[in-house]
């Protein structure tokens, strides 16, 4: 069993990851500015209130953990201004992990980040850039920073996220020639993350996840 830090744990994929990790028997430190509002009851859960852009919060949160899941997100209304959360938080997290000797990180970015931008369909490219361009440029900077590190990383690049129950039946697209968009429940993304907290199946790899 691992002791895992989930950064961005109060909502979305992060919260689904907290639930799945607890169900799998792991200890979880759930990090978010609104961590106190996480409505789960489990003796293996620790709520940790902090800001991912603040080095002092992140260093404290890394104490004693074996793996980190970075599942940060910005509200839709913030997509139309400059987005710096992903790169800023990563510029804090990576050196803090290296200093603390924590090596495993699974970073949630998205289909369209980094070299998967080339796989976006021709018709989707312009609208995708208009709405998500600033966020995905910042996610690409996030991935670049992690790639340059000594960490054992996996980039988790889901397609369009949906709610509801996980299906346990989804595709993990590893070969760039197979990358394409699709939908996937957040709970299935969490299932992939928790299944790969340990082991080296996808270390130093980027995968696209769709149903
Ligand atoms: N929507 C899609 O179809 C889609 C597709 C592919 C990829 N993605 C990506 O998947 C990721 C997860 O999205 P989601 O919708 O599941 O999650 P989300 O609802 O956006 O949750 C974001 C989490 O990040 C935390 N957070 C934000 N700023 C923070 C800060 N400064 N310090 C600490 N925590 C912070 C939030 O908690 P607090 O606010 O309490 O701090 C929250 O727990 C995002 O990066 C998104 O871009 C989305």
Automatic annotation (TrEMBL):
NAD(P)-binding domain ranges (all copies): 8-197
| SUPFAM superfamilies documented for this protein | NAD(P)-binding Rossmann-fold domains
Tell me where on the tree of life, at the top rank, the source sits: Bacteria
A UniProt-annotated Pfam family: NAD_binding_10
Please report the name of this protein according to its UniProt entry.
NAD(P)-binding domain-containing protein
């Amino acid at each position: 069993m691992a002791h895992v830090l989930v950064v961005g744990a109060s909502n979305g994929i992060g919260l689904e990851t907290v639930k799945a990790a607890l169900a799998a028997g792991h200890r979880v430190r759930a990090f978010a500015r609104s961590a106190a509002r996480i409505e789960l009851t489990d003796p293996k859960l620790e709520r940790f209130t902090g800001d991912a852009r603040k080095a002092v919060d992140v260093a404290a949160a890394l104490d004693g953990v074996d793996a980190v899941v970075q599942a940060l997100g910005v509200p839709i209304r913030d997509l139309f201004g400059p987005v710096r959360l992903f790169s800023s938080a990563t510029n804090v997290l990576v050196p803090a992990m290296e200093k603390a000797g924590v090596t495993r990180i699974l970073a949630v970015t998205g289909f369209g980040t980094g070299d998967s931008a080339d796989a976006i369909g021709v018709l989707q490219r312009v609208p995708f850039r208009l709405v998500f361009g600033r966020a995905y440029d910042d996610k690409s900077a996030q991935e670049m920073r992690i790639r340059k590190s000594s960490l054992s990383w996996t980039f988790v690049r889901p397609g369009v996220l949906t709610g509801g129950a996980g299906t346990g039946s989804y595709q993990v697209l590893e070969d760039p020639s197979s990358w394409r968009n699709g939908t996937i429940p957040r709970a299935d993304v969490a299932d992939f993350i928790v299944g790969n907290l340990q082991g080296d199946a996808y270390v130093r790899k980027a995968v696209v996840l769709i149903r």
